C-alpha cells in the first residue's frame, strides 16, 4: 500500500474543508483553517482511488536529462523538454528520439517554452518563445510547418484545438489577452483584451488553457 506524508496541502483539503458538488458534477473543496493540518498523518493513495507508478527514463549518450521544464503525454508517448531540447519516450520510459534541432533556421526552434502533442493529427506543436514562431513536427520528428507568433506581445501559454491556436499573453494584468489563430486561414483574431494594466500593483503567476467536456476554459494562478 502506498502512502504519502503530506506537508499540508491535501490534508488541509480533506480534513478541514467543506465539500460540495457543483452543477458540473465536479467536487469543490474550500480550505477553512490551514493551522489545523496535522502534518504527521499518513493518507493511503488507495483511499483516494489513486495509483502512482514510477517510470524511470532511459539514459543514453543521446539522452542526458537535466532538469525537466515541460512534460506532456500523448496516447503512446511522453514528451519532455530538458535544457531546451525535446525528447520522446515510450510509456515504459525507453528513449526513442530527440525532436527537431535548436537553431535559427526555418525548420529549427530557438526555445521550446510550451509544447503540445496533438493525437488526432499526430503532430507536436512547439511555441518558440524567443524565435517568435510556432514550429510543428510530426510524431516521427519530421518538420511540417511554422508560423509567426502575434506581433508586439509576449505569449505565456497556448492551446491547440480543432485547427486553431489559442494564445494567452504575458503582462501585468490579472486577466490576460486571448488571441485565436486559424492555422488554415492564417488569420489572427483577438478574443478578449485586458481591462487595464496594473500600476503600483504587481501580478505574479501564470495562466493556462484546458478543455473539458468539449468546452475551453482559462485559469489564472496568481
Structure notes:
There is one protein chain. The protein has 222 residues and is mainly beta. The protein has 2 domains: 3-48, no CATH class; 68-221, TolB, C-terminal domain (Neuraminidase, 6 Propeller), CATH 2.120.10. It is 3% helix and 46% strand. The chain has one helix at residues 9-15, and strands spanning 3-5, 17-21, 27-31, 42-44, 68-73, 77-82, 85-90, 95-99, 112-118, 123-128, 133-138, 143-148, 155-161, 164-169, 178-182, 187-192, 206-212, 215-221. The strands form 6 sheets. The chain has a 4-stranded antiparallel sheet with strand order 5-6-7-8, with no helix packed on it. Strands 9-10-11-12 form a 4-stranded antiparallel sheet, with no helix packed on it. Strands 13-14-15-16 form a 4-stranded antiparallel sheet, with no helix packed on it. Strand 14 and strand 15 (178-182) form a beta hairpin. It is globular. 18% of the residues are buried.
Q: What's the structural blueprint in terms of helices and strands?
A:
Elements: E1 3-5, H1 9-15, E2 17-21, E3 27-31, E4 42-44, E5 68-73, E6 77-82, E7 85-90, E8 95-99, E9 112-118, E10 123-128, E11 133-138, E12 143-148, E13 155-161, E14 164-169, E15 178-182, E16 187-192, E17 206-212, E18 215-221
Antiparallel strand pairs: 1-4, 2-3, 5-6, 6-7, 7-8, 9-10, 10-11, 11-12, 13-14, 14-15, 15-16, 17-18
Under CATH, the topology of the largest domain is which?
Neuraminidase
Strand content: over 45%
What's the name of the CATH homologous superfamily of the largest domain? TolB, C-terminal domain
Secondary-structure element sequence?
EHEEEEEEEEEEEEEEEEE
Please report the first level of CATH classification, the CATH class of the largest domain. Answer: Mainly Beta
Radius of gyration: 20 Å
The percentage helix is under 10%
Mean pLDDT: 79
Number of helices: 1
Which of globular, elongated, flat, extended, rod-shaped describes the shape? globular
Query: Which regions are unreliable across 5 or more consecutive residues at pLDDT < 50?
Result: 1-19
Widest sheet: strand order?
5-6-7-8
Largest sheet: 4 strands, antiparallel
Amino acid at each position: 500500500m502506498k502512502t504519502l506524508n503530506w506537508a499540508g496541502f491535501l490534508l488541509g483539503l480533506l480534513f478541514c474543508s467543506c465539500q460540495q458538488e457543483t452543477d458540473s458534477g465536479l467536487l469543490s473543496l474550500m480550505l477553512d483553517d490551514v493551522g489545523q493540518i496535522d502534518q504527521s498523518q499518513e493518507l493511503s493513495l488507495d483511499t483516494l482511488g489513486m495509483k502512482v507508478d514510477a517510470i524511470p527514463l532511459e539514459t543514453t549518450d543521446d539522452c542526458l536529462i537535466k532538469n525537466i521544464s515541460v512534460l506532456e503525454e500523448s496516447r503512446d508517448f511522453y514528451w519532455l523538454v530538458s535544457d531546451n531540447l525535446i525528447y520522446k519516450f515510450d510509456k515504459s520510459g525507453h528513449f526513442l528520439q530527440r525532436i527537431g534541432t535548436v537553431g535559427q533556421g526555418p525548420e529549427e526552434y530557438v526555445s521550446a517554452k510550451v509544447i503540445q502533442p496533438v493525437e488526432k493529427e499526430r503532430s507536436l506543436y512547439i511555441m518558440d518563445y524567443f524565435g517568435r514562431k510556432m514550429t510543428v513536427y510530426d510524431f516521427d520528428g519530421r518538420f511540417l510547418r511554422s508560423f509567426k507568433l502575434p506581433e508586439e506581445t509576449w505569449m505565456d501559454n497556448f492551446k491547440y484545438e480543432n485547427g486553431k491556436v489559442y494564445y494567452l499573453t504575458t503582462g501585468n494584468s490579472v486577466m490576460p489577452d486571448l488571441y485565436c489563430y486559424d492555422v488554415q486561414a492564417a488569420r489572427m483574431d483577438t478574443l478578449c483584451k485586458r481591462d487595464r494594466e496594473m500600476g503600483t500593483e504587481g501580478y505574479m503567476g501564470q495562466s493556462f488553457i484546458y478543455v473539458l467536456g468539449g468546452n475551453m476554459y482559462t485559469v489564472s494562478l496568481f
